[in-house]
Write a structure and sequence with these properties.
The chain is an alpha+beta fold. The chain is built from three helices and six strands, in the order H-E-H-E-E-E-E-E-H.
Length: 123
C-alpha cells in the first residue's frame, strides 16, 4: 500500500509548514487527487490515521477533491472528460492522439487551521 508512504510524506510536509509558520492545530489537509494518479482515496484515508498518530496532525482529516481525467483532442480542438480511465481516446471523435491535461494530480492545496477559540479548552 503506497498510500501509507504518501500519507507519511504529507504529514512531513504539513508538520514542517505548521512549525515554520507557528500555526495552530490543523483540522484538515485539502488535497486534489487525479483519477489517473494511482492513489486510492480510501486507502489514503486509512493510511492517514496511521501516519498522523502521535503527531501534531493527529485527529485531523483529509478533504479530497477528485479530479476527473480530461484530454485535449487535436482533431476536435476541445477538452473532454474521459468516461473511463481505461480508454485514453477522445470520447467525442474516438481520436487516439488526445493529450491528457488533467487527472494525474496529487496536490496538497491547503491546510485548514482551527480557530484560536477552538484550540483552547473551555475555562
Amino acid at each position: 500500500m503506497h498510500e501509507l508512504s504518501i500519507a507519511l510524506s504529507l504529514v512531513e510536509s504539513a508538520t514542517h509548514e505548521v512549525e515554520r509558520r507557528a500555526l495552530g492545530p490543523v483540522r484538515a489537509l485539502h488535497l486534489r487527487i487525479g483519477r489517473l494518479s494511482g492513489v486510492m482515496p480510501d486507502a489514503l484515508h486509512f493510511g492517514w490515521e496511521v501516519a498522523t498518530e502521535g503527531t501534531v496532525l493527529a485527529g485531523s482529516r483529509l478533504e479530497i477533491e477528485d479530479v476527473t481525467a480530461t484530454v485535449h483532442c487535436p482533431d476536435c480542438d476541445e477538452e473532454h472528460e474521459l468516461p473511463s480511465i481505461h480508454v485514453l481516446r477522445c470520447p467525442a471523435c474516438g481520436g487516439g492522439t488526445a493529450r491528457l491535461v488533467r487527472g494525474r494530480e496529487l496536490d496538497l492545496i491547503g491546510l485548514e487551521i482551527a480557530d484560536s477559540d477552538e484550540a483552547s479548552p473551555p475555562p
